[in-house]
Amino acid sequence: MIACTEPGCTGTYEDGYCNVCGSPQTATAPASGTPASATSLLGTGVAQASPDRAAAAADPDAERSTRTGRTSSSRLATAALGSARTAATGGTRPTRRVGTSSTRLRGARLGAGLTTVPPAPVQDPLQAVMAVPEVPERKRFCPACGAEVGRSRDGVPGRTAGFCPKCGNHFDFTPTLNPGDVVGGQYEVVGCLAHGGLGWIYLARDRNVSGRWVVLKGLLNSGDPDAYAAAISERQFLAEVEHPLIVEIYNFAMHEGAGYTVMEFVGGRSLKQILHDRREAAGGVNTPLPVDQALAFVLEILPAFAYLHDVGLLFCDFKPDNVIQQGDAVKLIDLGGVRRIDDLDSAIFGTVGYQAPEVAEVGPSVASDIYTIGRTLATLVLDFRGNTSTYVASLPAVADTPVFQTYDSFYRLLAKACALDPSDRFATVDELRAQVLGVLREVVATDRGPGSPALHSAASVLFEAPTSDEAGHPLAWDQLPALKVDASDPAASWLAGVNVSNPDQRLAALADAPDETVEVRLRRATAAIEAGRQDVLDQTLSQILTDDPWEWRAAWLGGLAQLSTGDPVAARASFNAVYGQVPGELAPKLALATACELSGEPDIAESLYIICARSDANYTAPAAFGLARIRRARGDLPASLAALDLVTPTRSSYVDARMLRAQLLATSSGDLRALSDALASVQSVSIEPRARAALRVDVLGSALAAVLKDGPSKTVQLGAVPAREPDLRDALEGALREYAALAPTPDERIALVDRANDVRRWTTW
What we know:
Phosphorylase Kinase, domain 1, 24 helices, ATP binding, three-stranded antiparallel β-sheet, alpha+beta
């Protein structure tokens, strides 16, 4: 026996394969009848190198074995490809193409595979250097009090250095470094790149690392103690920040008493520059980004914020200037305002219009970072005049903002991210990111236009996919998507074993829960709804909301309970609150649409059903049936049919959709083409014989009435039946007799036979 050579395996080889792990015998442990130099392993189709590189034919008996129970797919025969195919055909060894023009495997990162963002060319560092490094007068402000300084007066240009007339603080907007200067004995200055909140930013070469391009960020005023402290703080901990989406800090160097942060050069365009370029291309007219592109940029940069928060850091001063697009990737730059979460003493840097309103009193937090993300997103998509004045801490009204009217979920996302009370915002960046992804999916679906079906299914981390489709009536409370159990809840594993179907017995089992967690209470509330125990439900939901007034899942269950008791108006309010908390989720929209349909708000229900039908294939069928019901009640037959056409053959309710479509066509008018379409709707689906016979009776009866009234048609056929009176009478008689044979009672059978006799055409002898 030869021992298996796989690490950790205790098996031995039998007939060329391990009797434990099933792996093929290697060349170092030759099998009986199999040359040690064999170059092709079963199940791969690719030649493998042997120690002596000698080519040998594999033993045809090597894959035969009397042993059973092996599960390794590597034992299966496979077609030869690559070098294995060359050896098998006896040809000369070709050289495989390296590189290809195909891009189908190189999907762009931006847009999460949902949308496309034009790539930004990687910039030549030398082209980014300012020809004349100066700060425009309109951007000169005192670094201490923020007052305007260095402005022209009476035709005399403003001074680039001096003292603030308001607070007396010294200012100097002249670069302190010149081309050729060497900082820290290592970094040779090439020129100025830009002027930022903390001073000039320079391009330099690292003499010690092959002339690598680096960026030096200096101080606006080395005499400003707050600015200098910020630089020192940055040197102490930012060099430890390491994330692929965050600019890398290399070093901190001194030059003539001033400090400079040395960081990675990131070539590309900032989001602010992209907005500027769009405005210039439009002749000076503000041209915001499309909503899908703005969401894609923010979605891509959010993991960088999550990383900073995880290591106890806050970015503080996020705005469009701080994101660089480089090709199809982005990077977070300018870490000058970053501080530790527990830092209560350092100076706080922020930008008016982006900084959260509470920062001045209580300081920055994770919630204030989320606020800056929301404000940045708003700036990217709105012609946001007044964001530093009228709307400095608010958003424009929905009625005045077309983009909010078009993308309701997007507005709700911004409203929560930019809520005045920090406790009302998203609690974490991960929570925000999940909703941004959902909203992006909806925005892309909306942009595809009316009647577009969902292109994919998406897995939610909060809700199960809907499993019920109802053609004839709105979904019941227990047919709406179920909440997913939070796997991090301490009682999650215990709850997995509570599978009692009887709700009263389930309530009894939940009373013995080892810990009174949120998930236990949510499960108890669900059981209380099923059991009709309003007292238990009210008490449980009250406990949840007392402990956490922001627990939207309690409102969700409250809405389900209100639907179960026939109060859709109250359910509407509950589901609307949930929608505001998780704007990227479709389940609250489907539930709200259901409540609106039941409570006499068909227009709102229709708009929500449309979002659901377009955005996720899991939601298309229940939403399509809702649309068909609303449009049928309105008398809009074409729109009803269009809704039913959204249900795909892969859905179990496809037959119901086709049958309902046929019934609408059969009963809506006497148009012969519509009646022909009714039969065609169900031609290729399997329908219960009695239902198909009933449909044929209805369609052929309506067609006969239409021909008797308006005359025959030479072009229309109903299935194989021409639209002429004799043919229709014969076909209808046959359909009635077929229907009679399937009748459940004698009386119904006799009545149908009588109808067949009545419609039968008379013949003369």
